[in-house]
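[Q] Does anyone have a clean structure-token version of this?
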Amino acid sequence: MALNSDQRQQFTRLYHGCAAWLYSYLLSLLRRPADAEEVLQETARVCWEKFDQYQPGTEFRAWACRIAHFKALKFREQQKKVPLAFSDLFFERVDEEAVVMADRLDARMIALNDCIAKLPARDRRLLRLRYAPGASARSVAEALGLSLDAVYRALVRIREVLYRCVSRAIAQEAS
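[A] Here you go.
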């Protein structure tokens, strides 16, 4: 299928948003990084080819995960000469649990983003500086003119606030 420019952009955005998760999922099923990478490439190809079957507005990751699941099963079938450590039932259970865990992680990420937005500006700035690529607590201390100990104390305090906030949000969502 030939995708138009908008479809290519949408596919790229959706696929890249879940590629790392798909790789982790495949690695949990196949155990060997090379095997997971091979099946991930095949999954990407099939997702691209069948993107016209994806229903916009539905969970792309779940759709891609089903494709990855079947590609992993096919790969395992082709590898029958290699003794398998786990049964097909095990892989089905891992698949089910992976989808449930992904939903929980998504909920936690949404809650975390909401909680970060509620922090005072100085705390958000400290987090942004600390978690910038290549940053360290020492570089943050230098940038803000603080002692290294002060940065560590602030980070511990902020993490505790975020932990409590996310826990409350998840508990409220569950009830």
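[Q] Thanks! Anything notable?
[A] The mean pLDDT is 86.
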